[in-house]
Amino acid sequence: MLELDQLSFRYPGQTTGWQFGFSVAPGHCVAVHGASGTGKSTVLNLIAGFLEPDSGAIRLAGQAIQNLSPWERPVSSVFQEHNLFEHLDVATNIGLGLHSGLKLTSDQRQMIAQSLDRAGLAGFGYRMPAELSGGQRQRIALLRAILRRKPVLLLDEPMTGLDPDAKHNLRTMLLEEKARGAILVLASHDEEDRKVLADQVWNL
Amino acid sequence: MLFRYLCLWLLSAVPLVAAAEQQPTLNVYTHPSFAAEWGPGPAIKVAFELECGCTLNFTVMESAGDILQRLRLEGQSTRADVVLGLDTATMETARQTGLLGKHLRRLDNLALPINWDDEHFVPFDWGYFAFVYDTEQLAEPPASLDALINAPDDLKIIIQDPRTSTPGLGLLLWMHSVYGDEASVKWQQLKGKILATTQSWSDGYFSLFMNGEAPMILSYSTSPAYHMAIDNTDRYQAAEFAEGHYLQVEVAALVASSQQQALAREFLDFMLTPNFQRHIPLKNVMYPAIDLGDELPDIFERLIKPSQTLFMAPVDVARDRRQLVNDWLDAMIR
Amino acid sequence: MINRPSNAPLSHPYWQLVPGIVLGTGLIGLVLLGLGSLLVTAGHLDFSVVWSSRYLRGVVTFTLWQAVLSVLLSLLVAVPVALALARFHDFTGRALLLRLMELSLVLPTIVAVSGIIGVYGRQGWLTTMVSEWFPHHGWNLYGVNGILLAHVFFNAPLAARILLQTLEAVPAPRLRIASQLGLRGWWLWRTVHWPAMRPILPGLAALVFTLCFTSFAIIMTLGGGPATTTLEVAIYQALRFEFDFAQAALLAVIQLVICGSLWWLAFQKQMPTSLMPGRRFSNPITLRYSVSQRCLGAVLLWVFFVFLTLPLFAIILRGAPALVPLNGIPALYFQLLPATGRSLLIAIPAGLGAVLGALLTLAATHKSSGKMLSAIPVTAGYLPLVVPPLVLGTGLFLLLRPGLGNTAQGWALVSFINGLMALPFVIQVLRGPLAELDDNSRRLADQLGVLGWYRWRWLYWPRMRRPIALGLAYGTALSMGDFGVIALFGSPGQPTLPVLMYQQLSSYRVADAAGTGLWLLGLLMLIFVVLSAISRPAIRTQRVTASPSVVEPEHA
Q1: From A95, B11, C144, C374, which residue has the greatest number of CB atoms within 10 Å?
Q2: How many whole angstroms separate alpha carbon B179 and alpha carbon B186?
């Protein structure tokens, strides 16, 4: 269970801030809903630890995580774009998600290759991100997030701007993760995304 | 890669450390041309080590000025036993440091244009400052300092700065010896002919004179000996000036705090023997401090022989130098 | 959990801060001690001496004046050259021109000056040629002309090189927009080029100013006489010939104050470099240039190319006779080769040290918060430029006096000081490329736990290898060609290359010295070429290897 307990945050110079409070059970997805600029990304950044809340708590399975550094939090993020390091090839980009110094076992290397195969990206390991389409880049980002096997997936408009095929691909992958018990927090202004993925909606 | 280089670097230093030997070592501070592979240093090292059963070590400073500077900085803790390469313009300042010992030698076989009875410094070579000219550019050089000063301004000369260079200071003293209080006026007259005032003799000789930028450069009366003997060319000659030429004597002295006083005195004695002196004429391109007789290369017969030797006592140089330099600056900036 | 990211080595934030701060504090302390020991030995300072002496007033004024003029001229040349180089990737001989530009800064002054004189002097080629057509051209190298010419020769290429690096780092989206809008001329300059250059111009101007302000041998050789004396000459005079520590310390303090306040001003104007995104896109973005612009750019680059190469040709022509084996191998090689080895032994650690120091300094600059703390690494990075080496060396000597023993220690010290002297240049080279990661990459790296050493290895190193190679080349080459420091501490009988050349110079071996000069020139060129070549991105052969993408700037 991921719980946001009276989590409040205000950007410096802002008069009114936000207060978030919801909880999601494993295998469930919450969609954060609101017009752009209303703080969808803010809540995701708070959970990921990129922003520090003014007060309140974030708990995962009863454990408070709001004081942990981003790298200590059991979460993986996929943003709308810029999910990959442009100067590193696809396999390295994914590999860094498994070990931050790329010290991979042969099993892990195999796992990367297999998952690329399954995602229809066989042989893409050597490609540079700049050579890929937007949909392919997002799939690789999601693949990395999935391979990290973190209990929480934070999705910040991951499918915006993609063609219907790519969207479909990604949704399928996300549904699989849900079925496996991952907690999904989805920020999206796409009706369709919410309908397919979300079990509950938090309105801003 | 970094590691490998570091190891290499450290390793290469080991033999130097390990080379310390049981034999007594005599440390001599000197200037680069003396210790150069082709300079007098290596041959003298061999010759002296044969006699003394010791090791002779040269430490090379950038110039005579640096030898003195280093000595002052190191003071009593200096590793030098002998300093070699100071000259008559700097020796009084060196004496005033109180760091040098008396040589206690008789110095009765000297062959210098002046009398020498200094109790600290032993001369090892000497020469005159002179303007060296390129015969291909200048057929008839001025015959006197006066003629040079009064020459039209399209005759260009290269001099060195008396604040940074030995010959530069030499010219200042030369002008002062000839003109006394009128020197400033004469400098102003000379000014239009000065193409460049370089930091060092080397800068002027290499960058300017040998590039043909000016037909005349302030140098030594012995410079043509090198060009004639080694380069086999008569192209560069010294102009003899009627007023006489200013003398430079290069000297050595023993360091008072040295643990090797006896050895150091042995070296000073050795300095005035043919075994040392025969390397001076062509390797240091100066006159030897003793009469070498037939061993003096014939080329030296073809050098100019100034009618008069100009020389200021080292004490006076030390006292007046600053004022003279300031007067010179004033004259040149005006 | 599969990974334990916090295990990344050196990931504690202090690792980015503390070494740089320690280094900076150490350096500042060293300089203060050096200067301090001079001041202590000197006793008391009387600043009124300077203002009351017409000569010293003149010196300060002249030093300032020529430095300002030199900066203006150097930048006036450097900006168009950098722009032209950034625009025309297909310029024939671009790579060669870049190597030449790197070379000019590190050339030993005496070698370069002799080359300049060979071209522009009274008997120089160009002067002789021009004289045939225009007998009354009135050109005279000696005086302010020569000083400015030489300063532009030394500094414009450096400035252009650094500016180019900045221009190449312009974010691709901005270029795309400019390209889409078809911007050109004034608007392109206003929207793309000027904003890119503006942040580094103050620092660059301060760097060039300091170099010209402390210029020494050039000014004396080409200046024509004591009317053109800089503070550095006066310091040298005071220290070497008058043994007037008080005067030397006084002048050094004045120099420190003038250059120091300039650096301070430059940093007040400094824009934050972290605004610069690190992302690059694969296709080179084509901006619109008219035919006339292309022609103008090509002409400009050719003129600059000729300006840089002519003196080098003069050096080659002069030095070749001593090196070309006509009958058997010239004896000179038996001196050159061991001297080269010794020089490398000093220069390579100096170069590595300078790069490491620059990286630590820059890391600490990025990381430190608070004005006082961040001032330390910044100051340390520029101090070596401002404090005359002679003053620093003398001070250090006074400090280390009893401990200075054998040759190896002496050489290590020379290597150390050379590295120190190269630090400011290496910092300039690395500063732009080492800007912080952009926000997205930083968040991503944080979440993945790519921290500390891993972050350096995977995120910085791939894009830093070429700038680092360039910095290493600068550091090594500067140390290689250094005449000053090695003489300061005295060298053993075995000479390094510059000492060998010095020996040849001071014993009439003019041809050999020219040969050694040429050898040194070739060696310096080799350093730049080799380091540039080995830092070129490797061809991808292995799985999961970091391969810098094709979009890396071509020039570094």
Answers
A1: A95
A2: 8
Run of H or E residues at A38 = none
Number of residues assigned to chain B: 334
Contact residues, B window 232-251, toward C, CB-based 8 Å cutoff: none
Nearest-CA distance A145 → chain C (Å): 9
Q: Do A76 and C447 touch (CB under 8 A)?
A: yes
- The sheet carrying A18-24 orders its strands as A18-24, A2-9, A55-60, A63-64
Kindly state whether residue C55 falls inside one of the protein's structural domains: no
The answer as to whether C3 is a domain residue is no
Q: Sign of dihedral through CA atoms C53, C55, C58, C59? A: negative
Query: Do C65 and C424 meet the contact criterion of CB atoms below 8 Å apart?
Result: no
Report pLDDT digits (tens) over C491-530. 555 788 888 888 888 888 888 999 999 999 999 999 998 9
Range of the domain at C139: 68-271+286-315
- Residue C510 and residue C361 share a domain: yes
Both C296 and C330 in a single domain?
Answer: no
Query: Which residue from C521, C525, C482 is spatially nearest to C502, judged by alpha carbons?
Result: C482
**Under a CB-based contact definition with an 8 Å cutoff, are residues C341 and C497 in contact?**
no
Residue C261 forms part of a structural domain = yes
Write the single-letter amino acid at B269.
Answer: D
What are chain B's domains?
A: 23-126+248-302 (3.40.190.10), 127-247+305-333 (3.40.190.10)
C-chain residues near B156 (CB < 8 A): 122
Phi then psi for residue B255, to 5 deg, are -90, 130
Tell me, yes or no, if C394 comes closer than 8 A to chain B by beta carbon. Answer: yes
**CATH number, domain containing residue C468:** 1.10.3720.10
Distance CA C369, CA C379 (A): 15
CATH number at residue A39: 3.40.50.300
Q: What is the sign, positive or negative, of the torsion defined by CA atoms of A31, A33, A37, A38?
A: negative
Nearest CA in chain B to C491: B60
Based on the number of CB atoms within 10 Å of its own CB, is A171 exposed (0-12), middle (13-18) or buried (19 or more)?
Answer: middle
Task: Point out the least confidently predicted range of C44-48, C58-62, C273-277.
Answer: C273-277
The domain total for chain C is: 2
Residues C534 and C500 placed together within one structural domain of the fold? yes
Cβ contact, residue pair A98, C550, below 8 Å: no
Q: Phi and psi dihedrals of C342, rounded to 5?
A: -65, -40
Query: Which of C232, C212, C228, C211 minimizes the C-alpha distance to C220?
Result: C228
Residues of chain B under the 70 pLDDT cut: 1-21
- Neighbouring C-beta atoms of residue C192, cutoff 10 Å: 21
Q: What is the pLDDT of residue B3?
A: 46
Which of A76, A96, A137 has the highest number of chain C CBs within 10 A, making it the mutation to test binding with C?
A96
User: Are C306 and C430 in a shared domain?
Assistant: no
| Chain C residues 443-472 with CB within 8 Å of chain A | 443-444, 446-451, 453-454, 457-459, 462-463
How many domains is chain A partitioned into structurally? Answer: 1
Does B120 contact C at CB distance below 8 Å?
A: no
Token code pair at residue C244: 């007037």
* Residues C232, C287: Cα–Cα separation, whole Å: 46
| Domain contains C437 | yes
Which ipTM score applies to this complex?
A: 0.88
For B147-162, the pLDDT digits (tens) are: 999 999 999 999 999 9
3-class secondary-structure state, position B257: coil
